[in-house]
Amino acid sequence: MNKNILLIFSILLTINVFGQINNNKNSWQIGVGLAITKFGESDAQFIGDKHLIQIPRVNLTMPISQKLSFDGALSFNTIDGVIKNSINYLSLDGSLRYNFNSFLGKIYPYVFTGGSLVDSERKTTPTLNVGAGATYWISDKVGLNTQLYYKYSFESFESMRSHIQITAGFVFDLNWSNVFGRGIGTTRVRTSSCHYDQHKI
Questions:
Q1: In which domain, by residue range, is 137 found?
Q2: What's the mean per-residue pLDDT of the chain?
């Protein structure tokens, strides 16, 4: 588990080194999708199931600076009559993201840390989260996003166990101004043009 997380972080750090300077997309975004939660074998026996599906999952991302953003998300249990889990799982997540430079022009990776409140069959339990994600922008306004969470549940909370959550969905660029009084949107590398003719006598 820990080796996989270290591998993800190493890959994203490599992408950041070789990415284009000042080329990231950090803006107000809203997303909708689904999530799949996976418990280990021994933990699944305690929880009551190994795989759980959350649908829908909605999130809102707010830019803080050129590289940092805050993401809040709510993962519902399931939709009645469509998908049913053997146990309930509802999650409220808050994450601080560090956004790397773009990769191949349209892929924008990031890493994050934060916490969750997980409401299960037993009671609401906090978790400490780390993970990574990326968005592939189909257009300037619409993208495909996927994330990998590792949610660590402290041993003092007996109602939940540590687990992995994978999310996928669509995100939409809202193009709002930043709440701190300035917009933080996509910045791209631009070639400087020569204005010699404007100053020629």
A1: 2-199
A2: 81
